[in-house]
Amino acid sequence: MNIEKHTTFTLRPACDMERDVLDDICFRSKAHWGYDSDFMENVRRQIRVHPDAVKAGRVWVAVDATDRPLGVVEVDPIDDTVADITLLFIASENLRRGIGRALYEKAIDLARQLGVRELLIDSDPQAAAFYASMGATRIGAEPTGYQGRLLPKFSVAIAPTPTLPLKGEGA
């Protein structure tokens, strides 16, 4: 299994059997910001891990030493050149531990693996400062269809993986 170890957590591909736990992290993380129950019920379906993305390896999870999920990221292709961070949520009790940064960097890596040149993010207003601090460029706002609410929209240019010259090539 492909994993990435960090000081206090590990990143690994998500498993289909843990989708309910990951969906709960997404929901609780969103609710952490004080949204009312009507709004939360309205977005519940939108902040769920997609089974096809899990099967395709586009959902990664941060776990603790006991393999308990702490956060999740999902990246989905839009077309041949653009992908989207569909989900990036951290359990509220695990904020400010570097998990969001690690999952964001994993999203960049997943986008690169998809071969896209741009990664889009429809950010929760509470997460906009995080994405800006990670170098994402705000490009506008995206309507949500809920009471005229707009989400900050960000873009990240994805550089291709550099290729090293073969031995004997180059200067």
Termini distance?
Answer: 38 Å
Helix content: 25-40%
- Strand-and-helix sequence, N→C? EEHHHEEEHEHEE
Total beta-strand segments: 8
- Taking all Cα atoms into account, the compactness measure Rg is 17 Å
Major sheet: 8 strands, mixed
**Low-confidence parts, pLDDT < 50 over ≥5 residues?**
none
* Fraction in beta strands: 25-35%
Global outline: globular
Q: Mean pLDDT, rounded to whole units?
A: 85
Task: Supply the helix-strand structural class.
Answer: alpha+beta
Biggest β-sheet: strands ordered side by side in the sheet: 1-2-3-4-5-6-8-7
Put simply, the count of helices is: 5
Question: What can you tell me about this protein's structure?
Answer:
This protein is globular. Strands 1-2-3-4-5-6-8-7 form an 8-stranded mixed beta sheet. It has helices spanning 19-31, 37-43, 51-55, 99-114, 128-133; strands at 4-5, 10-13, 59-63, 69-77, 82-90, 118-122, 137-143, 150-157. The mean pLDDT is 85. It contains 5 helices and 8 strands; from the N terminus they run ββαααβββαβαββ. By secondary structure, it is an alpha+beta fold. Helix content is 27%, strand content 29%. The longest helix has 16 residues, at 99-114.
